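Quick question: what would this complex look like in 3D?
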Amino acid sequence: MKMDHSLPLEYSTDQNKLNILGFWIFLGAEIMLFATLFASYFTLANRTGNGPTGAEIFEITPVLIETFLLLTSSFTIGLGIHAMRLGKQKAMLTFFSVTLLLGLAFLGVEIYEFVHYVHVGAGLQTSAFTSILLTTLGTHGAHVTLGLFWGLFIILQIKKRGLTPQTANKSFIFSLYWHFLDVVWIFIFSFIYLKGMM
Amino acid sequence: MEFFERFAVPHPSPAIYASMVAIGLVVIAIIAGLTYFKKWGYLWREWLTTVDHKRIGIMYLISALIMLFRGGVDAVMMRAQLSAPENTLLDAQHYNEIFTTHGVVMIIFMAMPFIFALMNIVVPLQIGARDVAFPRLNALSFWLFFMGAMLFNISFVVGGSPDAGWTSYFPLAGNDFSTSVGTNYYMLAIQISGIGSLMTGINMITTILRMRAPGMTLMKMPMFTWSTFIANVIIVFAFPVLTVALAMGTMDRLFGTQFFTMENGGMDMLWANLFWVWGHPEVYILILPAFGIYSEVISTFSRKNLYGYKSMVASMVVISLMSFLVWVHHFFTMGQGALTNSIFSITTMAIAVPTGVKIFNWLLTMYKGKITITTPMLYSLLFIPLFTLGGVTGVMLAMSAADYQYHNTMFLVAHFHNVIIPGVVFAMLAGLTYYWPKMFGFMLNEKIGKWTAWLLSIGFLLAFMPMYITGLDGQARRMYTYSEATGFGTLNMISFVGAIIMAVGFALIVYNVYYSTRYASRDISSDPWDARTLEWSTHNPVPEYNFAIVPEVKSSQALWDAKKEGHNLFKGKYEEIHMPNNSGAPFLMSVVFFIWGFAMIFSLWIPAIIATIGIFAFMAHRSFEQDHGHHISVKEIEETETKMRGAK
């Protein structure tokens, strides 16, 4: 395997570079996926039928907690990648673990939020608005859930194999994924919750 | 027994029972044959687990041809039913199922794999690469497509086919009006194969951006590679829209959500919009690689470089952008208002401009060229006038006011077949003939090939020109019969005759494969067409590693320039080559996807949950797996190269 030592570990082999570019293109597809969900949300947001409107069911406290948790986790994973570039495996693993814990806490609050919605009569089948609301949030939540497992697997691999071009590559790509989920959340926060509460 | 009743076909007929028997017999025959000839191991080692782009391409090709015949039988049945007024060959329900599966099979399971076949086989060779960027993912793409296709096809005998049209508009496709599981098949089978298409998109873009031979700048890429690149960019941006639309449709049908329903705020037109936001770019995903094939063929057989290379590229880029801005023209009559319709009328007409640029470029490539009329060239020459005809009727349809006359008539059916058959199908057949020696090491018979091309063209004209007339006279599409008083009888009979002639043409392709396999000379050079691009600079058939030495390129027609100017494309000496390992995971994971899809279709929740866990287990396995591939030693390369050269 040819290695280029002038580049960071995650970019050091040809396959690593391909993986990172490929993942960026995948994120392009993910942007389209969420863009379609948002477009559908804006189309259906006021079509509440006999169900409640957004303003009636949204609660600011859990949403703020979720936002705080996810934004912080995006920061800690950035620190994790920084530690990785410095070759500090232990610090990196700590930051990755913190990230996943924050993600887990986010997911917990989101599950609470979903239970709350169903409780106040805004289930998946209630109206077009609740269907698209829960689907959009649920798609993001499913991405976070997948990320928790993925991140955990990467931590286990680094513990076992150390920082190699492969594990560094995976970690870097995972950080792109995690930042992306954060960006999507910012849009959800602004255009679903804040706009819905106004 | 109640449990098994759900798998019964809701609307059976002798034809369906006969197909059940036929499918059963074919499956038994395949299993018996593989066992008798002891080919299970061969099948597993060489094909089911392969990650080689050439073999994956060949598997796409075989699947596409099989699906072409499945869709073709549907077409002939429809034309037979309509050949006379008040015909009773098929009843309304069967006719509905057949036009639905014909559309889905032909677009998703025939045309798409056919272009993927050519992309897979040609693009890595054309850019001087040894494989695609993610060979394992490529195998997964194929198997997801394949399992999606199989899932869709069993709907015919298990549970009932979808019957809401290939566009599956809601509320018709909702539970109220489509009570069988047919539309579930539609939603989930297309979803599974669509995930595969998206992965191919990512794979091809990365391959083309990062794995080109030294010296091949973007503007020195051969035109087929350019068209593949742009088509895959469209795939990456269009397919997620379909993913979401299908997921929403599935949830409406299975989980009682209210996206496209008629009450509780649901909006049926949202489906139509989302479907066509994917659906119209999809048309260009199919036609751009077809244009790429024509560019290669016309340039090769005119013995001239492609006229207007830069304008060809620019027009494709413009088409790719505009393909996302025309979707409303599929439903001008559904009440958007005059302003919206006018805007989409104009964008639709504007897209004819870059397409026209390409037509003129091909004509000017041929101008003063030394044209040899081979089968691929004959397809290209027939394509230009026939496709232009379809393009012109497209501009007629683009006028939103006039569209109120054409909408949902046979005129529209004639139009889109007029662009897809001479545009996409002819290109795929031209590509099949042109690249056949690259895949299998011998040429297809030219005489049979030309007969096929002429039969398909004449059959096409007879089948579809009458539809323009009956369509303008008001014959609606998707109607299973018409009264004698309409006077459509004669023209529909002519259409039926055309369909039969086309069927004969397609049968001739199979005969040609048989005949050429038996009688064609294996003694052909690596460059039997005297072609211009890199794929013809390596042996026929291509060794596993494609190129023993990575070529160095100076122009968009590297091989031609090397031949004319006598410079060596392959400098340096053999080095050890790194290749990816085979893997059974993509195939097995796709089998689990198949089970998942089947369980979801029939609302079998426990198997569905188990299969979902299975899919994630495969992903987890892949995460922990360490696979560094294998190396081909210099000695092995030398042996292969000597053998390949000796065989000539």
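Answer marked as accepted. DSSP finds 21 helices and two strands in chain B.
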